[in-house]
UniProtKB/TrEMBL annotation:
InterPro entries: YjiS-like. Pfam families: YjiS-like. This is Uncharacterized conserved protein YjiS, DUF1127 family. Residues 30-62 form the YjiS-like domain. It comes from Pseudorhodobacter antarcticus.
Length: 71
């Protein structure tokens, strides 16, 4: 089996293009995580105290649960 080693550099603009796409991807992922946390907060906020107690949560836990989804 032959080994091939190349020392060619990336084409002009390839690194900048990759960095830009990664930047946009990070923004999109942040928006998606924010929306997931918002939906979780809204869904849990609509439950009564009794329903929250049935699943082992309190009103004070809602913000913590929503923030765990963002990690």
């Amino acid at each position: 089996m032959a080994a091939y080693q190349s020392t060619r550099t990336a084409p002009f603009g390839a690194i900048a293009t990759y960095s830009f796409i990664r930047f946009i991807s990070n923004i999109a992922n942040s928006v998606i995580a924010w929306n997931d946390a918002r939906v979780t907060r809204n869904s849990l906020g609509k439950l009564s105290d009794r329903e929250l107690d049935d699943i082992g949560l309190t009103r004070g836990d809602i913000a913590d649960i929503a923030n765990l989804n963002r990690i």
